[in-house]
Design goal:
It is built from two helices and eight strands. Strands 1, 2, 3, 4, 5, 6, 7 and 8 form an eight-stranded antiparallel sheet that branches. A hairpin with a 2-residue loop joins strand 3 and strand 4.
Amino acid sequence: MSVKVDLDQLADTLADYRLAYLITVGDDFRAHTVAVDPVLTAGVLDVGAMGRTTRANVTGHGDVTVIWPPGEPGGYTLILDGTARPNDDTLQVVPTRAVLHRKATPESPSTNPNCVHDCVPIEQA
């Protein structure tokens, strides 16, 4: 299923986050995680320079995930899925889906009382 990411809402949300982690997958299906400092410009995340393993992974498997941990305990983690585009020595990610995610608490608003997560999609209505 394809979900349209609301890029205006994503840009506003990114202002609350700092360091992120880029997750790629190799031919052996092992995850490779690196710290990045992405910048959203014209609807595309520029994650900066990429190393040898990241380049090999995105060349073979273009689907990636970028995760921004919460700034404080109990806060939301921002999770973004996208398609990687190598650009010379840097990497760009075109967002395809984004969500704010955290473990639900008894106080969390939820439409499903049996849900163990508290998620807020960042998408166009």
